[in-house]
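step=encode ok
step=design start
structure_in=
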């Protein structure tokens, strides 16, 4: 396939090779030196750490399967990126939990025949967010798949989907790319200089999406700086409570920065699809569609705030992992070079056991937030363990 289908995927050469071979085999219909019909299957599970590029690989593979030839490739790439291809179904995790109705709707559409290509491709991002009852609805579709439908699921690990689904998919495991690989991508995609690219990739711990934000958004970098300044400055209960409130506000600000532009774009696209001119009143018959979109945006905002708090906790984890490295005499392995003074002060103030206790507390806070504990309460409880 054309190289542009796979561009932007970093450090995943083996996974790309497997999927290229599968797409090549289906395009030719015959075995060749690199691919065969057996390379293709009706269901795939892409796993890997957050930021490793699971969704990017899923959509690249979808593009390769949906493209009908070199002449249509550019149009297919644009349609897949815009989620407008008639043979592509996508279920994203705008909600904290993927609902059973959403999966039923996707399963129903998976039985339609392809409109213009060889396949219909159904993608479920964050398949780990399906409860067991919802997963069982998908399981039936995987057990009796339509002949020309391909399912692509994304999850952090194989253990995050139920065993019966695992047994019916082909797994592709991604690795975390190196700092150097992500930095090279940032330089190529955004034209940032070498220093900015390395710093962004390093502070994001090779999380591609976060590295892009740090490289292109001074505000995102400033919020990260403030996060660590606040926590390293805690000296008492009052400081801890104030810092928790401010961290919660930072998460809200970060969420707003991410969702506002997307919400405006989604609203404009929805109104255009409904035939409503810009600035025109919404006809009563169409208001339920707009209300549905607005409800989805509210749920997405809730998820985005939780993701923002999780990013803060990930940054704190990296900082106190650095504190532990200093305490163990491995200062050359630290991530947050810009905080060398603060790391040294924290290493002197805490014992290694206390540092490990705080790192464990960060993990507990992440688990609490994933269980729908109010983020502010989880942050307050976490920061009090520093006292």
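sequence_out=
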């Amino acid at each position: 396939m054309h190289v542009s289908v796979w561009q932007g995927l970093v450090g995943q050469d083996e996974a790309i090779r497997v999927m290229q071979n599968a797409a090549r085999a289906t395009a030719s219909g015959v075995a060749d030196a690199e691919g065969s019909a057996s390379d293709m299957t009706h269901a795939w599970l892409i796993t890997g750490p957050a930021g490793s590029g699971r969704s990017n690989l899923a959509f690249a593979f979808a593009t390769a399967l949906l493209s009908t030839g070199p002449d249509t490739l550019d149009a297919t790439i644009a349609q897949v990126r815009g989620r407008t291809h008639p043979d592509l179904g996508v279920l994203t995790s705008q909600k904290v939990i993927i609902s059973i109705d959403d999966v039923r709707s996707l399963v129903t559409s998976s039985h339609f025949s392809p409109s213009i290509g060889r396949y219909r491709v159904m993608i479920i991002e964050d398949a780990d967010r399906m409860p067991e009852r919802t997963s069982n609805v998908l399981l039936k579709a995987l057990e009796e798949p339509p002949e020309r439908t391909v399912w692509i699921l994304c999850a952090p690990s194989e253990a995050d989907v139920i065993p019966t689904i695992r047994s019916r998919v082909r797994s592709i495991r991604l690795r975390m790319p190196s700092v150097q690989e992500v930095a090279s991508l940032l330089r190529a995609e955004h034209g940032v200089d070498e220093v900015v690219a390395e710093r962004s990739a390093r502070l994001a711990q090779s999380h591609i999406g976060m590295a892009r934000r740090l490289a292109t958004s001074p505000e995102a970098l400033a919020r990260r700086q403030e996060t660590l300044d606040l926590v390293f400055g805690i000296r008492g209960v009052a400081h801890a409570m104030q810092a928790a409130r401010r961290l919660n506000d930072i998460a809200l600000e970060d969420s707003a920065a991410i969702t506002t532009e997307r919400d405006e774009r989604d609203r404009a696209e929805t109104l255009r699809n409904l035939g409503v001119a810009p600035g025109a009143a919404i006809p009563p018959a169409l208001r339920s569609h707009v209300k549905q979109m607005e409800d989805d945006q509210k749920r997405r905002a809730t998820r985005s705030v939780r993701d923002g708090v999780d990013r803060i906790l990930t940054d704190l984890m990296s900082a106190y992992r650095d504190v532990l490295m200093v305490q163990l005499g491995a200062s050359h392995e630290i991530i947050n070079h810009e905080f060398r003074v603060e790391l040294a002060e924290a290493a002197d103030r805490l014992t290694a056991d206390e540092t490990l206790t705080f790192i464990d507390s960060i993990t507990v806070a992440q688990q609490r937030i994933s269980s729908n504990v109010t983020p502010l309460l989880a942050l307050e409880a976490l920061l009090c363990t520093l006292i």
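step=design ok
step=annotate ok -> Strands lie at 43-47, 88-91, 120-124, 149-155, 170-173.
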